[in-house]
Specification:
Largest sheet: 7 strands, mixed
Helix content: 25-40%
Mean pLDDT: 94
Number of strands: 13
CATH topology of the largest domain: Nucleoside Triphosphate Pyrophosphohydrolase
Number of domains: 2
Strand content: 25-35%
CATH architecture of the largest domain: Alpha-Beta Complex
Order of helices and strands: HEEHEEHEEEEEEHEEEHH
Radius of gyration: 20 Å
Structural class: alpha+beta
CATH superfamily of the largest domain: Nucleoside Triphosphate Pyrophosphohydrolase
Length: about 270
């Protein structure tokens, strides 16, 4: 399929959306002294943390969370996350810990999932593009009560990596929970590279490393959601997928991943 001007323009605008600066200035967020950079924070929020007596101090170099080891880092971040929740800086509470990594992508601590965006902490995710043997692509519509992007379309599976998980563990867990599929039942599973998203979101700043995989869903195998987070699945032909993508029906992240995947498949 040859690429038309509308797809080119959509892809150009989409690239800008997944690599966008913060709306307001943010200061580096450091963990420990000497510290490792683990995120970013708006100065006004940092001042509130300091005033609340949390283990945080601000300087010209940025905002530092006092922590001498992993255990004290976890404890400090837990206090900060609890305060953000109590002050309604974050909405919801997942009781799910994510790994906090530094600027070298090395694990340093853990934090409640709900608190990562105000602190600009990098998250890690896995997405799966599911093809059919005859060229279809399975996609999901996110549940209408999802906290983010309700009702938007997404890849067959997309999920955040929990603390302590590998890419393979997250892929297996999320594919079963979201689509009711076992990885072993899929064919030709392949890694397709990493996409890093940096963009403002409603509760802060999103930085996310997304590992993309694709696989063939055999004939007669139909995805079935198990965790209540998917409204429905559809299998689209490539032309239908491109039309839906360019009509902004997909989440920003899923659109970028699927456009990249279509390029790899030479469908654009």
């Amino acid at each position: 399929m040859t690429r038309d001007g509308a797809a080119d323009e959509f892809w150009r605008r989409l690239r800008a959306r997944v690599d966008a600066p913060p709306v307001r200035a943010r200061a580096p967020l450091w963990l420990g002294v000497p510290g490792e950079c683990i995120g970013s924070i708006e100065p006004a929020l940092a001042q509130r943390l300091v005033a609340a007596g949390l283990p945080v101090r601000a300087s010209e170099a940025g905002v530092c969370i006092a922590a001498g080891d992993a255990a004290s880092a976890d404890a400090a971040l837990a206090r900060i996350a609890a305060w953000l929740h109590a002050e309604r800086v974050v909405n919801g509470w997942r009781d799910e810990l994510l790994t906090v990594t530094d600027q070298h992508d090395m694990p340093r601590a853990r934090i409640e999932r709900a608190a990562v965006r105000p602190l600009g902490i990098t998250t890690h995710a896995v997405h799966l593009v599911g093809q059919t043997p005859d060229g279809g692509v399975w996609v999901q519509q996110r549940a209408l009560d999802k906290a983010t992007d309700p009702g938007q379309w997404d890849t067959l599976m997309g999920g955040l990596q929990a603390a302590g998980e590998s890419d393979a563990t997250t892929l297996e867990r999320e594919t079963w929970e979201e689509a009711g599929l076992r990885i072993a039942a899929l064919q030709h599973l392949q890694p397709r590279g990493r996409l890093t998203v940096r963009r403002p979101v409603s509760d802060g700043y999103m930085v996310e490393h997304i590992e993309l995989f694709d696989a063939v869903v055999p004939h007669g195998v139909v995805p079935e959601n198990r965790d209540g987070e998917v409204a429905r699945f559809e299998c689209l032909k490539i032309a239908e997928l491109i039309a839906r993508l360019t009509s902004n029906a997909f989440t920003v992240e899923a659109a970028a991943l699927l456009m990249r995947w279509l390029e790899l498949q030479r469908c654009l």
